[in-house]
Fold this sequence. Notes:
Radius of gyration: 14 Å
Number of helices: 3
Shape: globular
Order of helices and strands: EEHEEHHE
Helix content: 25-40%
Distance between the termini: 15 Å
Amino acid sequence: MMEPDAFMLWKKAPFFVEIQRSVYSDKVIKEKIERYEEYYMSNEWQQEPWQPQNKKVFPAVIMVTDTRYKIDGPYIHFVQVQNIDQVVNTFEPKNAGVRMADAIQLISSH
């Protein structure tokens, strides 16, 4: 089973968060991706209480890391960033004026 460092909702969009401060081997990253894919294929995520009623959404995975990993996955959207500001810049329209503290609701973490 995959074990993200956190799960969050940002503007009603779900995200898993992975904080990778160590450099992982290709094998370890591949195994981590496979655990997310197994969860995706299980369809258990469709029963989560944060799911919208009218459309089931699998969370993107945000990887905060200084290392760029080669990630190939047909089912899951992985976003690799070096810091949280890059997350905001990736998903936030320019000049939106939203403060990070106001936009992210942290659901759980380790």
